[in-house]
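Hello, quick one for you while I still have it in my head. No rush at all, and the record is pasted right below.
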Amino acid sequence: MSRDRIIHDGPLIIGGGLAGLSAALSAAPAPVLVVSPAPLLTAASSAWAQGGVAAALTLEDTPGLHLKDTEAAGAGLVHHDAALALTTDGRATVEWLASLGAPFDRNADGGFAVSREAAHSLARVARVGGDGAGKAILSALIAAVRTSDHVQLWEDGRLRGLIQDATGRVIGGLIERGDGRLVEVLAPAVVLATGGAGGLYAMTTTPVALLGEGMALAWLAGAEIRDPEFVQFHPTAIDVGQDPMPLATEALRGEGARLIDREGRFLLGPADDADLAPRDIVARAVFRAWAEGRGAFLDATRAIGDHFPTEFPAVFASCTAAGLDPRVTPIPVAPAAHYHMGGITADTEGRTSLKGLFAVGECAATGVHGANRLASNSLLEAAAFGRRTGRAAAAEPVRTRKPVAGVDPAPHLPPEALLELRRGMSDDCGVVRDAEGLKALLKRIETLERAHGPALPLIAGHLIVRSALDRRESRGGHYRSDHPDTDRRARHTRLTRVDPIFVATTVATTAAVTAVIASI
C-alpha cells in the first residue's frame, strides 16, 4: 500500500482525551498535530469520568494529606517524588481547568464544592453537576484547542507503528487515516496519550476501543513497560447487560449509599465508612457476592432518594434507560475493568526510556498510582502531567530525521478473536486470579497470536497476563487467590523487548515474555 510522508516541526500527540489536549495546549507556541481515532469527546475515556478532580482545595486539606492518602492507596508501589509533584500541582491544575471554562460546582462563597470518595481521608474531589466532571472538563479543553492557532487536528487517525532512526530514537508515527491511507508523520517528539486497556475486558466501564495499543506499540519499539498486571476494577459498574457497562460513581457512596446483597446484608459491614475502603477491597467484596449468587446492589434509596435526578443526573439517566428507578430500587452492580495503573514507564514530564517518545495519562506508568489508584487522581494526573509533558515535548529540538526502514502497520484483530480475548481476560485475569486460569489464558492468547499475528490487543493482553502470572503475591488491584499474602518487600515488574524476545537481567524467559521484577 502506498503511503504519504509529512514532516512536522512540533510534537505529534496521539490521543484526544484530557492528557493529550492538556499537552497540546501547553506546547504553545510550538506547532502541534493531535491525532484522534474519532471526533473529540467521543473517543476518550476522560469524557466518561463521573467523580471529578482530586486536589487539596479546602482550608483543612493540604497537598501533604493528599499525598499521604495517595501513597496509602498505592500499596507500597507509589513513587514518592512523582506523587508529591502531582498533589502539589493539584490546586493550580483545577484553577487552570476552570480558567478554560470547566464549570466546577461552587460553594456559596465561590470556592470549589468538593465530595469525598473512597480512601480519601476527607472531601477533596472537585466535581461538575454531581457526576458530570469528565465530559464538562473535556468539552472546555476541546473548545480551547479548536480555537488555538498552533494546534492541528486529525479526528480520523489511529497510530499503527512508531518510526525510529538508527539509534532507536522515536522520530515519528505511522498513522492510518479514516479512508485507509497510511501517512508517515516525522516529528521531533511523539506523545502517546492513548488511554488505557479496559476494552481488553468483556466487563468494562471504558470505551471498548481502548485496547492498550499505545502500550503495545511502545513495547514493540523497545520502551520499558512497568507493572502492567495492575488493573483497577471499579466495584460499582451497573449490571444491566450493557457493553460497556454504565458506571455508578463512587461519590454515591461518599454521600451515604450502601452496598448490600439480595437479602439486604451489608457487603463490607455496617460501619458508616465501610464502603469507602480502597477500591480493590470493595471490588473483591462485590465480586464475591456476585460470584456466589447473592447478588450485589448499591442502595441509595435512603441516602439520596428523591434527590437522585438533580444530584447525580448521569447515573440516574443510565438507570432509567435500563428500566431502573434508583430513588426506590437498589442498583445491581458488578466489578468491571476501569483503569490501568501499569503502562509505559514515564517520568512526570512524560519522558520514556526511548528518546523522542513521551507518554502521559492512563497509558503511562508514572508511579503516582502504584498498585491501586486513589479515586479521582486520574483526571488530575492527565491534566497536571499533560501540561508538563506538552512543555517538555515542545522543547525537543528539530533534528535531521532518517528512518531506518519503512514501518509495517500492526495487523488488525478480527472481531471474533477480540471477543474471545475479552472474555478470557474477564474470566481469568480479573478481580481474582490464580495460576491455573492465567496459564490457560496465556495459552489462548498464544494460539490467537499464531493465528492472527502480533495484533496490538494480543500484545497488550499478553503483557498483562504474563506479568500477573509472574507476580506471586497479592497487592493492590492484583489479587492472587493462590498467593493471597503481600510480600514484605515492594517490587516493580519491568518489561523490555529486544528482538526476538523480552530481555531480562535475571528472570527466565518464555517464548514471548520475560518479566523483570525489580525492587524499588
In short: The radius of gyration is 22 Å.
